[in-house]
Design goal:
By secondary structure, the chain is an alpha+beta fold. It folds into 3 domains: 80 residues, no CATH class; 92 residues, no CATH class; 110 residues, Chitinase A, domain 3 (Roll). It is built from 11 helices and 10 strands. The protein has a 4-stranded antiparallel β-sheet. Helix 6 packs across helix 10. The radius of gyration is 30 Å and the shape is flat. The relative contact order is 0.10.
């Protein structure tokens, strides 16, 4: 073997060994390392919370569906978020290398931003923290308000199909699906409204008219499933319902009757609402208190110049 080949093989072996060591010695909570700087799990999660949220939730809201689905972020999306985190960190470091963190415009903007953050912290940790609704007040608001109700709903697992083969696969998968293995099967559980009262009557009348004309298949698949939910039991499979190679099949996991939402489920919401309701009154009181205690000199001549 020539000297050049020997050196090349030796370098390759060192690189491979270093790679194996690096892979085997994964630091805790570190997703990537740029030189001496770490990008941690928290950094990735806080890089763009809205992007992460949109990747995790998809908002298919067909008629009657009252909650969004949730899924795992796939490898491509994870790489996308990570790459953007890395390139952002690199640009920040490049900005520092060019002393932009000492730039007068940057420092001025930072001072204004610091005041903004400090004021918002004051609102939360002084003004809002001083408003402490009692349990009696929360319960009174819950009993007084008629808002904390929900319609009859069913938790269902649903699959859309487009041909006979996928219909058979959907039915087989739904038969095996449970609350515990739904993610493993790549499915989601959603809440579907069960039409009742006038709403249910109108939908049923429309169904009856279509059936009399031999057009029941023209009904929206979601509407057909919603109507069938009324008499379905947990474990039942409804469907396939649909038309034009667009079919919906669902499995009922559990049903919840219409009624008042339990107090504990809305307690935090009520507390936030009561705090929001009192916020401006308490804020104005604090502002008047601070103003009374402060010694303030106003030069009206210069005030006029500020608005010229």
């Amino acid at each position: 073997m020539s000297t050049r080949k020997t050196i090349f093989a030796f370098v390759a072996l060192i690189a491979l060994s270093a790679g194996l060591i690096a892979q085997g010695d994964v630091p805790p909570d570190v997703v990537a390392r740029i030189g001496e700087q770490d990008i941690t799990i928290d950094d990735v999660q806080s890089f763009d919370p809205e992007m992460v949220f949109q990747f995790k939730h998809f908002f298919e809201r067909p008629m009657g569906q009252v909650s969004s689905g949730r899924r795992q972020i796939d490898d491509r999306e994870r790489e996308n978020i990570l790459e953007q985190s890395i390139t952002q960190r690199l640009m920040i470091e490049d900005a520092r290398a060019q002393d932009l963190d000492k730039d007068a415009d940057f420092l001025s903007a930072m001072a204004r931003f610091e005041d903004y953050i400090l004021l918002n912290t004051y609102y939360n940790k002084v003004i809002r923290a001083s408003i402490q609704p009692t349990d009696e007040e929360l319960r009174a608001e819950y009993d007084r308000s008629g808002r904390f109700t929900r319609p009859a709903t069913a938790k269902v697992i649903s699959i859309w199909s487009h041909d006979e083969l996928s219909l058979a696969e959907a039915t087989d998968k739904l038969k095996r699906a449970t609350k515990d293995n739904v993610e493993e099967l790549g499915l989601t559980i959603t809440d579907m409204r069960i039409p009742e009262g006038e709403d249910g009557e109108m939908m049923q009348q429309k169904t009856n008219m279509r059936s009399a004309d031999g057009q029941e298949g023209d009904l929206d698949p979601m509407m057909q499933v919603m109507l069938a939910l009324k008499d379905a039991k947990a474990g039942d499979i409804i469907g396939p319902k649909g038309r034009d190679n667009h079919f919906l099949t669902v499995k009922v996991i559990e049903k919840h009757p219409a009624g008042k939402i339990p107090f504990e489920e809305v307690r935090e919401q009520i507390e936030r609402e009561l705090v929001d309701r009192e916020f401006h009154r308490v804020l104005e009181e604090k502002q008047r208190e601070l103003r009374r205690k402060a010694v303030v000199t106003i030069y009206y001549e210069n005030l006029d110049k500020a608005f010229e």
